[in-house]
Structure formats: C-alpha cells, structure tokens
Amino acid sequence: MNLTGFSFNNSRLVMLLVALLAIAGLAMLTNFPSKEDAFVTIRDAVVTTYYPGMSPDRVEDLITRKVEEYIRQIPEVEDLYDVKSTTGVSIIYVKVWDKFFDMDQIWQDLRNKMNDVMRELPEGTIGPIVNDEFGDVSVVLVALTAKGFSMAEMRDVARDMQDDFYTIPGIRKVELHGVQSERVFLEISNARLAQYGLSPTERAQTLIKQNIILPGGSIDTGLVELVVEPSGNFENVEDIENVVIRLPSSNQVAYLKDIATVKRAYIDPPQQKVYYSGEPAIILAVEQMETGVNVLDFTPRVQKRVKEWQNRLPIGYQVDVAFYQAQYVEESVNGVTMNLLQTLVTVLAVVVIFLGLRTGLIVGTIVPLTMIVTLVWMRVLGIELHRITLATLIISLGLLVDNGIVMAEEIGRRMLEGEARKDAAINAGKTLALPLLTSTLTTILAFVPLALAPNVTGEYLSSMATVLAITLLTSWVLANMVTPLNCYWFLKPKALTAEEIQAQYEKPIYQWYKGLLTFAMNNRVVVIGVVAGVTVGAVALMGLVRVQFMPDSER
After folding, report:
1. Where in the chain do CATH 3.30.70.1320 domains reside?
2. pLDDT (tens digit per residue) in 247-279
3. CA angle, 534 then 538 then 542, to 5°
4. Residue 3, burial from CB neighbour count under 10 angstroms (0-12, 13-18, 19+)
5. What is the CATH number of domain 44-131?
6. Cα 417 from Cα 424, distance rounded (Å)
C-alpha cells in the first residue's frame, strides 16, 4: 500500500498526527536551543614551558627543541607554528589535522608526551603546560569595578562571585581576567647588607626555612593517628617582618624589619590589566555548556545573578554586564527569521497567482507545516538554530514546494479529465511517489558532499545537509499524504470536454510560449550559439568573483 492510499484509509489518524506535530513544533520554537554560529571543534593547543632567567638561546636549545621533538611523535599533529623562545619562556602552538574529532584523547596523549619529556629538561624547569582551552568563547562578560577599594579586595569579591556563578544551570566555566598578582617585596641596600655581613642568598634561605608549608608527619597512638602540622608558615607581612636574622658580623640577632623594608605590592608591570569605563576592573568571563542550552535563556539567568550581587555589595562596587552574546544571537536569529517569513510569503503568493486560489492554498499549507515538522526533527536530533540551519530553511523553501505543486497539479488534471476525486488522488500518489522521491533524493545528494568533507568545512556545514534532507523528505511525505487529502476535500474542479481543454491552450500566455518555442526550433543554431556564448562568458567572469568561505565578522 502506498502512502496516499494509507492516508485515505486512515485519514483521521493522519490528520491527528499532523496536528500533534504542528503543536509540538510551535511549542518547541519558544524554547529552541539557539546560538550565533554552528559548533566547530578547536584543534589548536599551546604548550608553554618556563625556566626563569634562562637566555633565549639556551631556552631554544635545552627546552624548545626537545619539546618539539616529543610533540611531533603524536601522529595526529599536523604542524607546530608560532614557536617562540624568549627569556625564560618557551611557547609552541600545536595544530591537529582537521580529520580528527576526538580531541580529548589527543590532548591527553599530548600531556602524556609532555610528562615524558620532563625527564630530559633542565632541573628547575616549570612545565611543559598544555592549554587546550584558549579557543573557548565566552557568552557573557561581567565587569567588576570598585572606587575606594584595592585590587586585592576586588579579587576576593570576584572569587566569591565566581563560586556563586557556578551554581547557575548551564554554566561550563567562569574565568577571571584582570586579577593582579601580589608579592611581598624586601627592600634593603647593598651597603646595609655589607654592614651586617649578610648576603641575599643567606637571607632567602632563612625565609625558606621559616616558611614551612609541608606536613610534619604523624603520630600513631594505637587508638588514633595524629597529624603534626608545623605552624611556622607566614600568614601576613607582620610574620615576615618578625623573622629573626642572625648577624654573622656580631653573632647577634635582629628582626628582619630592623634591617629591611618589607611591603606587599602588586607585580610591576601589571599582568593582564583590564579597564571598564576608564576604571581598573576584573572581568568574569562566563562560558555556557556547548549543547542543550539556549543562550537566549541562559543570559537572563546570569543577568539576574549580577543584579543580586549589585544589591548586596558595599557602596563603591559596581557590577555590569559588559558583553552578552545573546543580543547578537537574537539579532541574527530575528534577521534570518524575518527573511524566512518574507521568503515564505513570496513563495505562497507566487503559488497562488500561478496555480489559482484553491490549488495555491492547498500547496501552500505544506510549506509552513514542513518547517514546523522539521523543527521537531531538529530538536530530536540535537540540531540547534544558528546561521547555517536558518539559512538552510530559507534555501529549502524554494525546493520543498515542488513536490506539492506536482502532486496537486496531477490530481487536478485527472479531475478535469473526469476521474473521480478519490481515485484521482490515490492514482496520482501511486504514479508520482517514486519519481518525486527520486527527484528529492537527487537534490539531497547534491548537498551531501558538504557534510562529508573531511575537514572543518564538513563539520561547520554538516547541519546544512542534514536539515535540508529532513526538510525535503518531510515535504515528500506530506505531498503524498496530506496534499491528496486536501485536494480530495477542497479541490472540486468541473470536468472539461475536449473542446474546453483545447480552449485552455488558446489563452495568450500559451500562445506567447508557443511562439517562443517555434522561434527557437526554427533558429536552432542561433539559440545554441547564444547559450554557448553566455556560458563561456560566465565561466570567464568567474575569476573576478571574490572567493570567501564565510563573510567577515563585524566583531
């Protein structure tokens, strides 16, 4: 039994399912996961290694080359680029081949290799440190400023906010930017060191021995095990000032504060200093989970939490949302949605004008219905709304109406020839089901290479092929099941006689088209020559067209 016959035998069930799908699609649209662009796997990482004070040449010879050697042993690595060896720092950027998608395993292999190379690096080397998250995108930036408060006080508040933000549903990561590192500085003149017979090394060793941060062991009493924790670690600047220093020149002792100035200050020059509205600030960069979270719903939750913090902080603190991606996502989605609606209205108007009111409306009903059912399948398959999927829906509008037009016109033609309405609908379905399916699959296959491209292009555009396939197959199913039913219920043309059918071809539009065909057949050489010339000219002008994968972003 074909689809058309099934729909006639179960018309109530079919229309109920169509109604339920339409309601489900409209309900999903109000909370559909949306983002600005399709997800793309970041296949880059940076490996950083530190050896404070080492010259660039020695960093290159003793660290960078060895690290490079071990990284190149990973078969998934395509290239190492932007390699730098500066004073005390080695930086290597790693690029993985586009055909690999399991990045977690690759980055773990990279970390394992870095653990192996550590045995061959000079003693005192810090790292190598692998950062595979520098390509993450923040959807919200929250700026914290404070007049009359120190950066240390701002840092404490920012960390409290960071901990609180992690309780927001959908949060993946919150990073702090603009936090200034503090250090304790000891200032003493070389003349005073010579006066007391001290050296910088001896002074540093005294502080290291005093600042005990390791556990002192444990005592097993038989009933309970007691952990011994030394209490000599420094808690504040005063603890450091009160360190007792032995003076070799007189075998006496003195407090450190008597021979040196101890102060707590920020690193100079500042690290990652951030300003917001001209004021020093700390930025909280909020990242949402990659899938299953609608940025349009996620951002208001963050904004609500920001307002709560603004109300609880002391006067002088200011918390603002400096950036939120939701506004750009909303603008992008709304803009494309408006284009989609305009295209939909245009397609329906053209169909009604050229097919007549009744036939046009019958064909037009499957257009929005196809869109709604497509949204249901997109949600089931985890495909989000973004520029690519919305653009695909616009492209498909001009394609999906073909199935309905062909089916409706075939049914109408059979009715005009005197065939019973039900028989005309069922026989048309039997006749056209396979040809329409073949045509639909041919169109779908034209877009399949986009999804199968073994690189980032395929990953970025895979949703285009998937959504187009869903849309066109849905339109084919609806054209075979819903359109025949609507034609049976609402299309009631009067059967025409042979003379009336012939009279249809005497209309001006047919006569104009007949004249055009007659001219083309009588001047075949000229017509073929013109078409060939236009084709060759178009191919020659293709070199003047700018080739670009995606348009430049304004941000």
Report:
1. 140-181+270-324
2. 665 666 666 666 677 766 666 555 667 788 778
3. 175
4. buried
5. 3.30.70.1430
6. 10
CATH topology of domain 183-216+227-266: 3.30.2090
Q: Which fold has domain 3-36+329-504?
A: Multidrug efflux transporter AcrB transmembrane fold (1.20.1640)
538/543 Cα distance (integer angstroms): 9
Please give the structure tokens belonging to residue 398.
């001009």
| pLDDT over 50 at 351, yes or no | yes
Distance CA(3)–CA(412), nearest Å, equals 19
Q: CA 365, CA 363: separation in Å to the nearest integer? A: 6
Q: Would you state the structure tokens that stand for residue 343, as one six-digit string? A: 């295209």
**Which superfamily does 140-181+270-324 belong to?**
Multidrug efflux transporter AcrB pore domain like (3.30.70.1320)
Within 13 A of 522's CA, how many CA atoms are on the CB side?
6
CA–CA distance, 47 with 372 (Å, rounded to integer) = 47
pTM over 0.70: no
Q: How far apart are CA 371 and CA 396, in angstroms?
A: 9
Bridge partners of residue 385, in order along the sequence = 34
